[in-house]
Design brief:
By secondary structure, the protein is of the alpha+beta class. The chain has 2 domains: 47-121; 137-454, BirA Bifunctional Protein, domain 2 (2-Layer Sandwich), CATH 3.30.930. Helix content is 41%, strand content 21%. It has 15 helices and 20 strands. Strands 1-2-13-14-15-18-12-11-7 form a 9-stranded mixed beta sheet. The protein has a 3-stranded mixed beta sheet with strand order 10-16-17. It has a two-stranded parallel sheet with strand order 3-4. β16 and β17 form a beta hairpin. The two termini are 43 Å apart.
Length: 458
């Protein structure tokens, strides 16, 4: 897709709501021999052994349930006969034998249920039919990227047909924060460890301003404001995210059933757990601000300099609970919202639908909003948006009542970055520094900070 100067093109993303709901709705999937889940494993390039292990455990669990039901029925039959029978001793002995078998069967069933539950919670979600299987699909652009002098041909090869302007000199976010004395990474690493740092000087005000601007703009759209707890119980994390993400990226408080949140999405999702919502109240839209804490296991050596990727950062998060028929419109709304926030602070961007193998395990479809980084001469992710179907609602038991229907329905949920503050500020700095070496602060932030420009420290 090409873009000319002045164009802002974001194509609507089609979302296909599956009848199965998600990979968590086992009763529906059993009738299809789990074929949609097999398809998801294939598209995600995942080993099917985990799925086969779950199916086998599910069979064993259901057989044990049947055995337990039969024992209970037999016990009831004998109990009714005891008072009427002349051979009460024999029936009492038989009843005792059944009780022993039932007790053993119940213990075995509990073990099978626990093992089955663990395997189920580890399954990835189904994959939307419109998700690419090979490479990301770009669906739109906003803004014209600035390309460093001498990098024009590289840009043309990487992004054929895309318009750009030339900048004589570019600086990386890492060099900018050093030159402008905006962080103290050395002291942060000394006192807290690698990938922790102190924000200093104007960066502190920019952080607060961007957080407030993004939150306020979304609230003005009708999103409900929320600041969640920064510590949650294990059950919240298990309900909100996949087990491997939980185990790899989350900090635990030693000796307590508490975990530092990796995103506001998780406690916001759990806010309506075990509730039945009114269908007229949907969609429910939330905007939440919180710090986020991530171990980032497996990301060592990747984007570790500066403020792009760290263990602690601030984030404005969007979250929606909706009916299935509302999912497409809500998904596109969240993507558009982040794109507009980035446009407001002068970051050129593009939106791409991720291939199945690169998506979150809980997402049926995932679109990333990528900002332009002049020093890297490429787009990099600044936020993710995922449609989960009923996957999260099943785990957290979020339902809605429908007038005229006796059975409550599982809600569908969507998460979306509003602004990942530090990462976005890093990108903004690269795009805001002029050829004279001065950073021009976007007006929407200077209105909060009173700072219109930042000069390097000499």
């Amino acid at each position: 897709m090409a873009i000319r100067k002045g164009d802002d093109i974001l194509s609507k993303i089609a979302v296909q709501v599956p009848e199965e709901g998600s990979s968590m709705e086992v009763n529906k999937l059993r009738r299809l021999d789990f074929s949609p889940v097999y398809d998801a494993f294939k598209k995600r390039h995942m080993n099917e052994n985990d799925l086969q292990a779950f199916i086998q455990k599910d069979v064993e669990w259901r057989k044990k349930l049947t055995e337990l039901e039969n024992l209970r029925a037999e016990k009831n039959r004998i109990s009714k006969q005891i008072s009427k029978s002349e051979d009460r001793e024999a029936l009492l002995a038989e009843a005792k034998d059944i009780d022993e078998k039932r007790s053993k069967c119940e213990a075995e069933q509990r073990v099978l249920q626990s093992e089955r539950e663990s395997l189920l919670l580890a399954l990835p979600n189904l994959v939307d039919a419109g998700v690419p299987t090979d490479v990301a699909k770009v669906v739109g652009y906003m803004g014209i990227p600035k390309v460093g002098a001498g990098k024009e041909e590289e840009f043309k090869v990487r992004y054929p047909g895309l318009d750009f302007t030339v900048l004589k000199g570019v600086m990386s976010q890492y060099d900018i924060i050093k030159a402008f004395n905006l962080t103290d990474e050395e002291r942060g690493a000394e006192l807290s460890g690698m990938r922790f740092y102190y924000k200093t000087n104007e960066l502190v005000l920019l952080d607060l301003a961007l957080s407030l601007y993004a939150t306020k703009k979304l609230a003005e759209q009708g999103f409900k404001l929320i600041t969640p707890p920064y510590l949650v119980k294990r059950a919240v994390e298990e309900g909100a995210t996949s087990l491997d993400a939980f185990q790899e990226s989350i900090y635990k408080i030693e000796g307590e059933d508490l975990y530092l949140i990796p995103t506001a999405e998780h406690p916001i999702a759990a806010y309506n757990s075990n509730k039945v919502l009114g269908d007229q109240s949907l969609p429910l839209r939330y905007v939440g601000f919180s710090p986020a804490f991530r171990r980032e296991v497996g990301a060592h050596g990747k984007d570790t300099k500066g403020i792009y990727r760290n263990h602690h950062f601030n984030k404005v998060e969007q979250y929606v609970i909706c009916k299935p028929e509302q999912a497409e419109a809500e998904f596109n709304l969240l993507v558009q919202n982040q794109a507009e926030l980035l446009r407001d602070i002068g970051i050129p961007l593009r939106v791409a639908i991720l291939p199945a193998w690169d998506m979150d395990k809980k997402a049926m479809m995932q679109a990333d909003v990528e900002g332009w980084w002049p020093a890297q001469n490429k787009y990099n992710e600044l936020g993710s948006h995922g449609y989960m179907g009923s996957w999260q609602a099943t785990r957290l038991n979020i339902k809605y009542a429908v007038k005229g229907k006796e059975q409550n329905q599982l809600a569908h949920t969507i998460y979306g970055t509003g602004i990942a503050i530090e990462r976005t500020l890093a990108c903004m700095l690269e795009n805001s520094i002029g050829e004279d070496g001065v950073i021009r602060v976007p007006k929407v932030l200077s209105d909060y900070t009173g700072i219109t420009e930042i000069k390097p420290v000499h």
